[in-house]
């Protein structure tokens, strides 16, 4: 199904498709109700919604991972790095959600400083 949605949205670059898939998986795993609600959208719109949710969830998980031995200070630094990359518009393969959310922002003309 995701391949159909990505194709409908005109997303053909494989690395970008992987980023959207990652975001979709986050949505499906953690936002079941939101994920099901995306079924009401046109297939071409679904990847963008998954990207926005996925980015927010990914950022939230950096701070909320209770099973981690990572200190609060280290988590804060990681979140600040993610935010800096986002606001700079820097796509970093190490952050799997960035490509999709930045592509969505460009496609829908969402200002990064919103």
Written overview of the protein:
The chain has about 110 residues and is mostly helical. The protein has one domain (about 1-105). It is built from six helices and no strands. It has helices at about 1-10, 15-30, 30-35, 45-65, 70-90, 100-105. α2 (about 15-30) packs across α4, α2 packs across α6 and α4 packs across α6 (about 100-105). The radius of gyration is 14 Å and the shape is globular. It starts with a helix and ends in a 7-residue tail after the last helix. The mean pLDDT is about 95.
Shape: globular
Low-confidence sequence ranges: none
Residue share in helix: 55-70%
Order of helices and strands: HHHHHH
Distance between the termini: 31 Å
Return the average pLDDT rounded to an integer: 93
Structurally, how many domains make up the residues? 1
How many alpha or pi helices? 6
Concise summary:
The protein is mainly alpha-helical. The protein has helices at 2-8, 14-30, 32-37, 46-64, 72-88, 98-107.
Write the layout of secondary structure elements.
Blueprint: H1 2-8, H2 14-30, H3 32-37, H4 46-64, H5 72-88, H6 98-107
Keywords for this entry:
mainly alpha; 114 residues; 67% helix
């Amino acid at each position: 199904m995701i391949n159909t949605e990505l194709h409908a949205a005109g997303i053909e670059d494989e690395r970008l498709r992987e980023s959207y898939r990652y975001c979709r998986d986050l949505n499906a795993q953690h936002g079941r109700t939101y994920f099901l609600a995306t079924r009401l959208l046109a297939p071409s719109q679904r990847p963008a919604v998954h990207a926005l949710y996925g980015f927010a969830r990914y950022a939230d998980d950096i701070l909320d991972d209770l099973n981690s031995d990572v200190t609060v200070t280290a988590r804060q630094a990681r979140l600040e790095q993610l935010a800096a990359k986002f606001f700079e518009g820097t796509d970093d393969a190490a952050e799997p959600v960035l490509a999709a959310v930045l592509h969505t922002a460009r496609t829908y003309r969402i200002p990064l400083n919103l």
